Amino acid sequence: MRADDYPAARTALRSASADSFVLIDASSGELLGTIETSRAYSTVHEGAVYLHMGRSYLVLQLDLPARRAVLEPFSGDYFTQAKRESMTYIERLHEQRSSHGVTLSFGSVIYSETVLGYQRKHMQDHSVIGFETLDLPTTEFTTRALWYELDELVAEEPFPNELLLGALHALEHGQIAVLPLIAMCDRWDIGGLSTNAHPQTGGPTIFIYDGHPGASA
Q1: N or C: which end of the chain has fewer CB within 10 A?
Q2: pLDDT tens readout for residues 37-57
């Protein structure tokens, strides 16, 4: 390292990723902050209502080549919610064991996410005002994950197919809620995905993964 180098200036406090978008206030030209690319498409897409430092902003433009989002102060009575399509692909298996009808694995995975559009919802009752489609790139990053294959356990006691996905999703959220007690991390550092038929495992699977790119290093 050079004597005049200052690594802290190149390190974002709010993100582990160096790939980010800047947030610009259109009314003042002020730089509000930055947001990592893996979150930008779902939170500061065009038309999104974005909360920053307790104030609401409406995103006027998400400029992909310039890596910036242009926002303006917002005082409307609705919020937005992105609709995403996500998948987790197993890249490399590191460890695996089975117990009580459950196969538990640990390894490297690739998380893929595409933001398809967003809903506008009333603030008071969360009723849907409308849906807008978006044309945004798919984001991918490599990370580490635990995954549970539950096909043997489910086969032992017949479980209604129409309830299976909801039950898996509830179990996923329960695991994410308690993991910070063991891993000493923030709840929002953890991602999860549950499916009743994963293309690689061939059955019901729950993934719990590190939500930051590069976690496999």
Answers
A1: N
A2: 878 999 999 999 999 988 999
User: Which SS3 state, helix, strand or coil, does residue 11 take?
Assistant: coil
Gyration radius of the chain's alpha carbons: 20
- List beta partners, residue 68: 22, 63
Spatial distance between the Cα atoms of 52 and 39, rounded to a whole number of angstroms: 14
pLDDT tens digit string along 182-213? 888 888 789 999 998 899 998 899 999 998 77
* Integer CA distances (angstroms), 51 to 20, 32, 73, 79, 176, in order: 17, 11, 10, 10, 24
Nearest to 38 by CA among 106, 90, 113: 113
Closest CA to 172 of 191, 185, 188: 191
Whole-model pTM: value is: 0.75
Residue 88 and residue 145: Cα distance in Å, rounded?
A: 9
Please state the φ and ψ torsions of residue 78, each to the nearest 5 degrees.
-140, 165
Q: Which residues pair with 61 in a beta bridge?
A: 70
Dist. CA 64–CA 66, nearest whole Å: 6
Q: What are phi and psi of 132, to 5 degrees?
A: -120, 135
Residue 101 structure tokens: 């009808």
CA distance 49 to 78: 8
